[in-house]
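User: Sequence recovery, please. Input:
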């Protein structure tokens, strides 16, 4: 039997009216508008978050009783909050969430501060439990099932799984996942969120990139809504912040993040953070934040080994219902070792080419297309990356490389970095010079010639260069 929401709500009202003072009834119940009834969930609209809180505090029992009478024991009530900023006393304080820019400020359904462009229904589910429904911003495709396990990700994956099983209850808090671009940080952190939601649907999970957090924070500051921003984040059970290295230099956002971190950690909530480097290398982040990052577990994602690459390609083609000759898959896996995003990119390019040109995918076609793509990625090696690889190789700091020091080993490392920059990037000599130690183009040219000459005359030196080159080409 399909009941009508108006009928159900009116029935509730007639009982409530008889049980509370008339003034209260007029003040608190008249303004409520029943919106919909879906199975056992009645949605009502209230004028403000304050209104909602007041109802919850003073009338929850009677509302629960009457609703159960109408809809049965598992009746639920959802609130849809309307923000009315023209009204002074309707100052919501728990979750006043900013309306989107450009929308009218009155009578807008509240939208959570993050999230989609449509106003989100903002249900606080009762009876009994005060919960804000937050759109967790999870991508259904990024599951654990789809996250192929390999030597390169075993620790991070299993720690992630443990965290998803008992969020906030393991020693892995925060769980700090780091690794280079395209190695699966976003996928894994999302998978944790999805798994938590599967196991504990009542938990409030939120995935947000550090960049989005920063933008929202400055927006909230501009609108004088910092407290609301803080409160919003402090009620999350499992908070996933992707790419925290983006916090570098953003001191105010860091401060706020620090408070949120502490609050959540102290109340046993789970934090999952990702970054492109380990905590100690996070320059531009305050010491106190970095030290918090080290409280839990840091786990890295490494470049996938050949077998993992093969397994990933097989899984992707299988999921997409595509059949490719083994030889083709093996060719892709052996040519692209840098990261998984590029592996996927190669596969997609290949599929697109074959459908567009109506060619079947043969090993020859694969070779043709992949080789072009691999060359293309080589061109994208950056000056930063070259400096990092060279410095890692000689075990020195990039700062030192870029300094004015004339120490012999450092001069040599600098020259090698310049040599590779000229060879492997399209940057001009003067750009290379100014990035690597503020030198001019003549210095770079001199460095280039020196390295060339030395390679020809000195075997040991030549093998250094070959080693570094190999490392650079893994990129
Ligand atoms: P990051 O955030 O580290 O830059 P992503 O999480 O965006 O990398 O991963 C890049 C792509 O590779 C995504 O499409 C992701 O689904 C895929 N991917 C990463 N790791 C795996 C894995 N272990 N198994 C399957 N797909 C993966
Ligand atoms: Mg990512």
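Assistant: Recovered sequence (475 residues):
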């Amino acid at each position: 039997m399909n009941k009508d929401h108006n009928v159900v709500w009116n029935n509730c009202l007639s009982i409530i009216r008889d049980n509370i003072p008339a003034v209260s009834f007029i003040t608190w119940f008249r303004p409520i508008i029943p919106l919909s009834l879906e199975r056992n969930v009645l949605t009502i609209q209230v004028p403000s978050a304050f209104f909602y809180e007041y109802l919850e505090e003073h009338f929850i029992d009677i509302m629960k009783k009457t609703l159960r009478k109408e809809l049965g024991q598992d009746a639920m009530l959802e609130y849809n909050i309307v923000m009315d900023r023209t009204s002074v006393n309707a100052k919501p304080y728990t979750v006043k969430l900013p309306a989107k820019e450009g929308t009218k400020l009155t009578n807008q359904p509240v939208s959570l501060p993050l999230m989609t462009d449509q106003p989100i229904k903002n249900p606080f589910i009762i009876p009994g439990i005060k919960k804000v429904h937050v759109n967790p911003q999870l991508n259904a495709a990024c599951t654990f099932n789809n996250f192929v396990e390999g030597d390169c990700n075993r620790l991070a994956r299993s720690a992630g799984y443990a965290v998803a099983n008992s969020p906030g209850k393991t020693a892995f808090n925060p769980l700090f996942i780091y690794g280079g671009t395209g190695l699966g940080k976003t996928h894994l952190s999302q998978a944790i969120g999805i798994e938590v939601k599967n196991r504990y649907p009542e938990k409030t999970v939120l995935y947000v990139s550090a960049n989005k957090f920063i933008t929202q924070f400055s927006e909230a500051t501009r609108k004088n809504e910092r407290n609301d921003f803080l409160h919003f984040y402090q009620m999350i059970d499992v908070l996933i912040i992707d790419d925290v290295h983006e916090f570098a230099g953003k001191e105010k956002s860091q401060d706020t993040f620090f408070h949120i971190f502490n609050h959540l950690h102290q109340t046993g909530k789970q934090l999952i953070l990702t970054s492109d480097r380990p905590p100690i290398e996070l320059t531009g982040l305050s010491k106190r934040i970095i030290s918090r990052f080290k409280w839990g577990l840091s786990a890295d994602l490494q470049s996938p080994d050949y077998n993992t690459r093969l397994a990933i390609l097989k899984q992707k083609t299988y999921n997409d219902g595509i059949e490719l000759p083994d030889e083709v898959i093996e060719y892709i896996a052996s040519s692209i070792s840098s990261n998984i995003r590029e592996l996927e990119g190669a596969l997609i390019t290949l599929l697109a080419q074959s459908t567009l040109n109506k060619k079947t995918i043969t090993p020859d076609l694969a070779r043709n297309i992949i080789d072009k793509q691999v060359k293309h990625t080589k061109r994208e090696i950056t000056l930063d990356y070259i400096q990092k690889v060279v410095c890692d190789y000689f075990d020195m700091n990039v700062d030192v490389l870029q300094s004015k020091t004339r120490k012999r080993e450092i001069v040599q490392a600098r020259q090698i970095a310049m040599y590779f920059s000229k060879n492997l990037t399209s940057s001009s000599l003067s750009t290379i010079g100014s990035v690597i130690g503020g030198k001019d183009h003549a210095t770079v040219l001199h460095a280039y010639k020196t390295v060339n000459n030395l390679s020809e005359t000195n075997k040991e030196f030549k093998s250094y260069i070959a080693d570094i080159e190999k490392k650079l080409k893994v990129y």
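Confidence is low (pLDDT under 50) at residues 83-130.
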